[in-house]
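Extended Data, panel c. Modelled sequence:
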Amino acid sequence: PTGLSDDNKTSFRNKIDDLYVDKMFKDKFFFYVGKKNIRDGVALGFNSTDFLGEGKEVDLTKREEERRLEREGNYLVGMDAFYSDVTWTAVFAPRIEDWQEEKSRVLLKASYLVESINTDMSLHYFHGSVPGIGFNISHTANDNLILYTETAFRKGRNRKIVRLVSEGSSNSYEIKDRDDQEIFPHVATGGHYTFKNGTNIIWEYIYNGDGYNQKEWDEFEGFVSYSGDQFKKGLFLDSMRSNLIQANQLMVFRQMRRNYIFTRISNSSIFNKIDGTLVLYLNLDDSSFLLNPSLDYKITPNTAISLSSNIFVGGETKEFGMMHWGQDVTLIYKYYF
């Protein structure tokens, strides 16, 4: 349940994340049907092979590995088949009017464990509005170090672009799709290392094929700046208001450009009471970045207080300097049953 409050009223919105039935046949085939949150991918900062999770809302106040655990699933039917070290998976998520508006999707996957070299691999085929293929590799080098890579190739983009059509007393822009026949790569590669004192460091390089290149970003930023300036001057108010609404719909937090670094330093047992984390999300294309420090203080075995903040650094024409809500601080009280 989610509570929504404004000056006039408070309302609640309820969503079911998982509600399904499953059945094992002959100790080899696992069948399931209903609403299920299927999660794929080995990285934390960006999951290019999490095909069935695209567009799902997540709680950004949670740690990266927790966000996908508590998101809304899909209505689907699927089966896993277990053969020696290989698991075969087939999933169909149909479009259901008023229940599931996405285009019908098919996911096929083969997962393979190579125990001799402590490596997991998986291959994915996805058919949907933006079809693609993907693969994941995760290698446990030793008790402290894990290395991984996650890659997808998509036919088309989940991103519209802005084009300046004409300049004049009122500039004219159009928002359109990119060529859906072009192949776009998406990559997250890196690893994490855990020290003897429990401190964990994660580092990932991310290439987001959906992101804007420099020319596309310049046109988008010009669209936002021009519309904002004209609106502040009281000119063409209806048109500029519409432009700003469309620009806001195009803003995808941490996925506007193409090249990023994700780094996280954490320790879950500081003074045996504090779970501390510091996240850096750096846009390599324009040098703007997000800092996300957070602390969880355990009051009793059943209660804790969580304090976190998002600090955006960058100029007005940069991705993290353009964020319209500015800095924030979140305080959460947790009770565990």
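The two ends are 17 Å apart (CA to CA). This feature is highlighted in the accompanying rendering.
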